[in-house]
Amino acid sequence: MKRKYFGTDGIRGTANQGSMTPEISLRLGMAAGRYFRSCSVKRHTVVIGKDTRLSGYSLEPALVAGFTSVGMDVSLCGTLPTPGVAMMTRSLRADLGVMISASHNNFRDNGLKLFGPDGYKLSDEIELEIEALMDEPLNQNLADSDKIGRTYRMEGATSRYIEIVKATFPRGLRLTGIRIVIDCANGAAYRVAPRALYELGAEIIPLGVTPDGFNINEKVGSTDTRALKKAVIEYRADIGIALDGDADRCIVVDENANEIDGDQLIALIAQQWQAAGKLSKPGVVTTLMSNLGLENYLESLGLTLERSDVGDRYVVEKMRADGYNLGGEQSGHVVLSDFSTTGDGMIAALQVLAASVKTEKPISEIANVFTPAPQKLINVHFEESNPLEDKDVLALIKKVDKRLGKSGRLLIRKSGTERLIRVMVEAEDSNDTQTAAEEIAEAIRKAA
Fold it and tell me: Can you list the domains of the chain with their CATH numbers?
């Protein structure tokens, strides 16, 4: 069934346009409220958190109006990372959690991510049922006058999240003497991340902690680590940690300002957890985008790599279905299901720091775990027409795939959150990788 509102990660779009308006938020609140209200007869509650985007100020009250009008109570967490909203939803035994965020996108975009009572993102089936209710008339199925929901400001949500994050750091270890540059992307973690690291004993140099509604992810965060790298060198830091706008992913920079992506972080944690007997199964789950070098490294440890569709929700679904407790994406989503139901940048970073403290080795020595196969990723913007339906583009993709043969890997897909075609090529030779990626990207540009 074709989706009208939901994409691969909730509803997302340009603020005040299309599917990202107060009206859509109102309709979502009413529809999701009606769906979850029908599941039981108890008093119903929804938890709402947000990042620092200006548009959150219009989307949040519209959601509140929608939920309360159908009889749902609302707990407002304020600015809180996405994994924090998932944790609060489960902790408070709420029916639903909503995070208002467009993750790594700039301030012009926003999104609505939904979590069920177990803290996991909603299934495709539930999202489709909610979609079916969103276009009903606004004056139907409202709560009786005496059943309208109430709204509460949840005091202490940030402190509760910080304590949960700190508890994932191994007992007996401290970050005393570790100098950390923490880049919060002017986003949801701008208060919680520096405080959690400081309370664990680290010396903190904060970046991206002055949000103004417009500067989220602007020249900071996991998608632009230039400022972080500069600060690591300037302050002679032991590590740099970059979160994205809603803090569900992280990228690490070592003491020499070399970037370490999600694949390397997963490899390091897998190595550490295998040695400690913490892996629930001998393997990890990643996506089709993860590097072939990671797969080969895990194989050398006797671990399997299971691949899912692109998107952290699909990683989590496969982890749950097959019983794995470690998974993630190359982009920095790392899912540690012993601690969290979704990607959590801070918890992942603490696992890396724990490995450094335990081994008494610098980040550069422990985190460059495997040699990546040459890989090239190019993002191509498109407008209305889908270039992947163009016969010349399809013919070229088939030709390049045949040319690479078994020595390479090709993945061409539409982004689920932006108007981008992602071209990923992997091959044994870096020149072949570059040439193939540019060739396909150029054909897509012409067709776009």
Answer: 11-155 (3.40.120.10), 160-257 (3.40.120.10), 260-346+354-366 (3.40.120.10), 375-447 (3.30.310.50)
